[in-house]
Amino acid sequence: MKALSDENRLAILLAVAQRDHSVTELTATTGLSQTLVSHHLKSLRDTGLVTVTAQGRSNIYSLCCAAVADPLEMLAALTKAPTTTDPTNPSMTGD
Hints:
Blueprint: H1 7-18, E1 21-22, H2 23-30, H3 34-46, E2 50-55, E3 58-63, H4 69-80
Antiparallel strand pairs: 1-3, 2-3
Helix pairs in contact: 1-3, 1-4
C-alpha cells in the first residue's frame, strides 16, 4: 500500500484507471514534470499496479486490472473527505 500513499501516484493511477496514457499525457493531466511522472510510474510498475506497452516511440501505461478501479476510486474519495477534526467539516460546528 506504500505505492498508494503518495498523492501524486494516486492521481496518476486515477488517470490511468480512466483510460490508458502516455507519460506526456500524464504530465499534462497531472501538471507534474516528466521526470516525476516517470519516477512514480516506475514505482507503480514495480508494485504491479500499472502495466506498460510500447506503442511506436511511446510507452502506454494501463491499470493492471479492472478489479483495482473501484477500490481505487473509493480510496481517492476517502483522501478528499473532510476528517472529523477538520474545522471546515459542518458536523464540527455544532449547528
